[in-house]
Each structure stands twice: as structure tokens, then as C-alpha cells.
């Protein structure tokens, strides 16, 4: 099925830099997505009960310089059932892991939270979910993870990096607040947008295909308004907003004006000056220091001119004799031992002794006779 939408999707922002969507354009895109999902046979088999997820795709003019996670409360819940929610709690003193689990489940029912939820104490997370396979199983079993605000900073080293790669990082909850049930329902039924500094696009789950077109539009407008107000960059940094399902084409519902790019570049220049401007600032600062140096030298000379009255101090004679410096044992070297008198002859000396014959008296007499003859 071919999806056709009009090309005029641009709508200017208000002076507060908040995005204003065209609801008619967003409704047309939602109806086109619903028709496409129903027409595809594979989507009817896989997502007949729960409905296929619908996402908002944001494209920025400039890549953000900082990572950010934005919580988005939605008027219509994205999830039908609450059975896929997990809560990490702290270990209560003088209680076992089973007792802490019962304690927090009882606390949630008393505060008005009636939906089913899995409670995992911090001690159980450290012991039972320490292997890599157990962490992967835990990640696949639940869709949303909540964490007690008192232990949230201790979780990253125990849950691993896969929770953050799949964008299932635990959301912090204040379990001591009075409006605990309402706060948890907003977190579970809402969604989050993870803005990364590695690319210009980011995506958030906003609705599902079983919703009506008006409910999808309400969620989309709420998400866009919260993102434009809570984002670290200005609302004019958003270039295009698309609405899409998991397998469909991205349908544009908002397109920014080209003049907004110049506004974004000017804001970046003011926040981060160029290298030339930084060099000029350094030169001006160096000149100021050079001018201030001769003034300080003149002041020092004037101070030295004022003569000070010398004070007589008695010289103390040393009463104790100075101690001799202890010679370290490491500094001393061992003297070589003298050669022993009774050394055995080496092999070379023995060979030389064999080659040189002994001169005796008989040998001398024979030589003398031969010389006479």
C-alpha cells in the first residue's frame, strides 16, 4: 500500500521557541500508518493482541554536544498490561531478601498502586543475577525497569551495559513520596527519549496501532511540547519530525524553516567562540599583564628604599657534638678474597708441563760432548 501525504508540512514556531504541530497533518499520518499496519498480513499475526509500536523520529540540524534522557508523560498509556515492570529496591536493615520484597509490595498497595510488579532487592541482584546469562534473561523478561532513588547510582556496575544499549536503563522513583502511585503510573505509561551526541537522529515510542487516531495525535503533541521545552538545545535545532512504525516508511509531520539553521549556528558561536577569537582574548590578557608588571616593580622599589632597623640576635653555640653519619650497609662493597696458596693446577698448566721436557745433568753432558766433536 502506497502512503501519500501533502508536501506542505512546515509550521513556524512561536516566539518562545516551542514547536507547534499541525494536528491535521499528524492525524493524516496516524491514519495512514494504521491502514498500512492492517493491510500487511505479517503485522496482523504478530501484533494482533498488543498492537504494533508507533515511534517519533527527531532529526536535528546540529549534533548535540551532551547526552540527555528526557522523560515524557503521555495522556494515553503506551502499555496495556503492567506485568512487564520490575522494581529494584534497597536492602532494609534486619530483614532478609524475602522480607524486604514483601515489605515493598505491601508499601505499594498501601500507597494505592494496584498493578502487579516484580520487586528485586539489591542483595538478590548482586547474588542471583551476577552471571551474564542471568542478566540477559532479566533484560528480556521485562519492558520497564524502575529503581529506588537511594540505590540508583550503584546499579550500573551490577546490571551491565546491555540495559543502556537497549535503552532500558532503570528510572529512579522516590519510594518515600506520598503520591507514589501516580508518579509510578506516569513513568510506566509514559516514555523516554535518549538524545545521543553520536548522531543527529533520536527516536521515542509514543503510541501503538490499537489506539485511535485522536489518541495518537494527543500523545504526539504532548511528546513534542515536552521535548522542545526540556531539551538542552533550543527548539529550533529540530529539523524534521517523522512518525513511523517498526517496518513502515517514516512520514513527515513537521519540517523546520531553513532560517532556523542560521539561528542555531549563531547560538553555538556565542556559546563556543572560534579559535581566532580565543587567540585575541589571550593576546589582550597578555598585554594587560605586561602593563601591570612595571607598575608592580616600581612599587617594590619604593618599599625597598625604606630602611629597616637591624635587630641583634645572639648566636647560639652548639652544646652537643654532631653525630657521625652512619654509613649504610648498602654503600659498602665486599673486598675480593686473596687467592689461596694451595690451588690446584688447571688443565692448561698440566698440558704445558707435559710438552716442556725436564732438563737434567745427563742431558747437559751429552750436549757438551756433541759440541766438542
Strand order of the largest sheet: 8-1-9-10
Please state the overall shape, judged from the principal axes of the Cα atoms.
elongated
Question: Which class do the helix and strand fractions yield?
Answer: alpha/beta
Quote the distance from N terminus to C terminus.
139 Å
User: How many β-strands, per DSSP?
Assistant: 10
| Rg for CA atoms | 43 Å
The stretches of 5 or more residues where confidence is low (pLDDT under 50) are: 1-16
Beta fraction? 15-25%
Describe this structure in words.
The relative contact order is 0.16. 41% of the residues lie in helices and 15% in strands. The longest helix has 31 residues. The strands form three sheets. The chain has a four-stranded antiparallel β-sheet. The chain has a four-stranded parallel β-sheet with strand order 4-3-5-6. It has a two-stranded antiparallel ribbon with strand order 2-7. Helix 3 links the parallel strand 3 and strand 4. The protein is built from 13 helices and ten strands. With 373 residues, the chain is α/β, with parallel strands linked by helices. Helix 1 crosses helix 9.
Question: How would the blueprint of this fold be written?
Answer:
Blueprint: H1 23-39, H2 41-46, E1 53-60, E2 68-72, E3 85-89, H3 97-110, E4 118-121, H4 122-127, H5 132-141, E5 144-148, H6 156-159, H7 162-165, E6 171-173, H8 180-189, E7 191-195, E8 201-208, H9 213-230, E9 238-245, E10 251-255, H10 259-271, H11 275-305, H12 347-355, H13 361-372
Parallel strand pairs: 3-4, 3-5, 5-6
Antiparallel strand pairs: 1-8, 1-9, 2-7, 9-10
Amino acid at each position: 500500500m502506497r502512503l501519500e501525504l501533502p508536501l506542505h508540512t512546515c509550521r513556524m514556531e512561536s516566539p518562545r521557541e516551542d514547536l507547534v504541530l499541525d494536528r491535521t497533518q499528524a492525524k493524516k499520518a496516524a491514519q495512514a500508518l494504521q491502514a498500512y499496519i492492517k493491510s500487511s498480513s505479517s503485522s496482523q499475526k504478530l501484533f494482533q493482541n498488543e498492537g504494533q509500536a508507533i515511534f517519533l523520529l527527531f532529526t536535528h540540524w546540529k549534533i548535540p554536544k551532551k547526552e540527555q534522557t528526557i522523560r515524557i508523560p503521555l495522556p494515553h498509556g503506551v502499555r496495556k498490561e503492567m506485568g512487564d515492570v520490575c522494581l529494584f529496591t534497597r536492602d532494609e536493615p534486619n530483614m532478609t531478601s524475602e522480607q524486604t520484597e514483601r515489605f515493598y509490595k505491601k508499601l505499594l498497595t498501601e500507597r494505592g498502586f494496584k498493578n502487579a510488579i516484580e520487586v528485586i532487592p539489591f542483595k538478590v541482584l548482586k547474588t542471583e543475577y551476577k552471571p551474564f546469562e542471568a542478566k540477559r534473561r532479566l533484560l528480556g523478561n521485562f519492558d520497564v525497569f524502575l529503581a529506588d532513588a537511594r540505590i540508583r547510582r550503584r546499579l550500573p556496575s551490577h546490571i551491565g551495559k546491555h540495559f543502556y544499549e537497549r535503552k532500558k536503563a532503570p528510572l529512579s522513583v522516590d519510594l518515600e513520596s506520598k503520591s507514589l502511585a501516580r508518579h509510578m503510573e506516569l513513568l510506566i505509561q509514559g516514555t523516554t527519549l535518549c538524545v545521543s551526541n553520536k548522531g543527529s537522529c533520536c527516536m521515542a515510542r509514543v503510541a501503538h496501532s490499537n489506539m485511535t487516531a485522536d489518541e495518537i495525535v494527543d500523545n504526539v503533541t504532548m511528546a513534542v511540547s515536552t521535548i522542545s521545552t526540556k531539551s538542552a538545545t533550543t527548539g529550533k535545532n529540530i529539523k524534521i519530525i517523522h512518525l513511523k512504525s517498526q517496518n513502515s516508511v517514516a512520514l513527515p509531520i513537521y519540517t523546520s524553516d531553513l532560517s532556523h539553521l542560521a539561528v542555531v549556528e549563531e547560538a553555538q558561536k556565542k556559546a563556543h567562540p572560534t579559535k581566532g577569537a580565543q587567540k585575541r582574548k589571550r593576546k589582550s590578557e597578555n598585554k594587560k599583564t605586561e602593563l601591570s608588571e612595571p607598575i608592580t616593580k616600581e612599587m617594590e622599589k619604593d618599599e625597598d628604599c625604606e630602611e629597616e632597623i637591624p635587630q641583634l640576635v645572639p648566636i647560639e653555640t652548639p652544646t652537643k657534638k654532631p653525630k657521625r653519619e652512619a654509613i649504610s650497609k648498602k654503600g659498602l662493597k665486599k673486598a675480593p678474597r686473596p687467592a689461596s696458596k694451595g690451588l690446584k693446577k688447571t688443565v692448561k698448566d698440566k698440558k704445558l708441563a707435559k710438552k716442556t721436557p725436564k732438563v737434567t745433568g745427563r742431558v747437559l753432558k751429552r750436549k757438551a760432548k756433541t759440541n766438542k766433536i
